[in-house]
Amino acid sequence: MGGLHLPLGMGEDTVRCWLVERDYWDEDVVTLVYATPDGELFHQRQLAANLVFGLDVTAAKEFDREDLEQTPEADRERYATEATKVRERHDPDETL
């Protein structure tokens, strides 16, 4: 994972990821996808829709490196583009 740069103050085992996708399925499940700025790694969470409305979905979250997956090749450019947009427009703790 050579090209991954960590923001100051973050340990080697923690990576900041930015919200790149929010999908609603059958009105009961929400999928949140956070990705690294280069689009190489991502973390996906599926939550009951009623939980998301009480949850602060922030522009960025920090994840343990072991909780991230390699992004499929077909999604990397899109995730990188979206992560960059969110990073440029929002503070990490800003609710989206």
Secondary structure class reads: alpha+beta
Oligomer: single chain
Low-pLDDT regions: 1-9
- In helices, the fraction of residues equals 10-25%
Instruction: Give the neighbour order of strands across the main sheet.
Output: 4-1-2-3-5
Query: Counting H and I runs of at least 4 residues, what is the number of helices?
Result: 2
Secondary structure tally: strands? 5
How can the largest sheet be summarized?
5 strands, antiparallel
Q: How many structural domains are formed by the residues?
A: 1
Backbone shape: globular
Radius of gyration, whole Å:
13 Å
End-to-end CA span: 29 Å
Mean of residue pLDDT? 82
What key attributes describe this structure?
96 residues, 5-stranded antiparallel sheet, alpha+beta, 35% strand
Summarize the structure.
With 96 residues, the chain is of the alpha+beta class. It is 22% helix and 35% strand. The chain has two helices and five strands.
